[in-house]
Amino acid sequence: MIAPHSFRFFLNPRQGVPGVVVLPESGFRRAAAEIRSWPGYAPTPLLDLGDMAAAARVGAVHYKDEGGRFGLGSFKALGGAYAVSRLLVAELARSGAVPAADAAGLSRGDYAAWTRAITVTCATDGNHGRAVAWGASRFGARCVIFVHQSVSQGRRDAIAAYGAEIRVVPGHYDDAVREAAAVAAREGWFVVSDTSWPGYTELPRDVMQGYRLMAEEAMAGLPAVPTHVFVQGGVGGVAAAVSVQSRLRFGTAPRLVVVEPERAACLLASAEAGAPVTVEGDLDTIMAGLACGEPSLLAWQELERAAFAFMAVPDAVVPEVMKALARRDPPVVAGESAVAGLAGLLLAAADPGARAALGLDAASRVLVFGTEGATDPALYASLAGMAAD
Ligand SMILES: Cc1ncc(COP(=O)(O)O)c(C=O)c1O
Fold this sequence. Notes:
alpha/beta, Rossmann fold, 2 domains, 16 helices, binds pyridoxal-5'-phosphate
């Protein structure tokens, strides 16, 4: 199904070491209740990909397809928009404007006189900024989104469509993160970041609590406990959210494999170093959502002890997997960052050493996350060889 490609693979020696609780249950219950109450909420499909299971010589491959999430094209809608609502409710209370505001009131525009004076901001590779801009427009706040030069025009336009101002920053994603934080501090804006660092964890934690709903939907829909979960990593937020949910539902049985782009593998590098490290270079990868050089602190605290293995896969495998999914009947429309986990499975399953190290065999039941659809339709068409629609 796909050609052989070289990849990096690292078994985590710290897997199972006790650690801190990164995402408390109360926060997840609150996030899930709120997001489920939003208009248009519906669980996304969980697909049984028999052809992929056959290609990987495993028992089953379950693919959670996030392409239809709230019309935004990716799971990120669950995190950024939820964190915007949490921020606005907290800020209305802190300022004394509305001591007991709630998300329903925000959606109705009850507090518009106050929220329109609040500016939310973040850096993005595309999807997180779209989620924050969507949240800001739904809940009545002003929004400024920072993108680095290589974020495609299609992705910038999708963010601007929600009324956000776009600012372009030289460098890559991590430079945009720093610029958003610096401008926000100067202007009195609020950073709603999907990545966390020492002293800035509250909103990224809300973002990750929102992501857990994707994992919960998928795990609730599985016919049996999975033996393996492959999930892609940018800053690690979604992988950590999946990890927490997997442990909650299934204990330590499923083996979690975190898959990153070869040129932006900061989680793998951190696992090798035994501490969070920054990957240098231009982080140039077609997996735009995964082009991150610095792990999120919260994500790292979860993954350093919970991930079974880390992988880094080359860009060349991405169009092959996108095409294979697009040619299915019915087709699965998966964007560049969506296929990384599945690509990791296919590569590891075909490699005798990685297959044995992971314990992949004909009885394995694997869960993967298709984290986006065609979030940039022009790019999708050029890589998948056919239009998304
Ligand atoms: C489609 C997609 N998948 C996966 C990720 C990775 O998420 P995280 O940065 O939380 O690791 C992103 C991040 O933007 C994304 O857009």
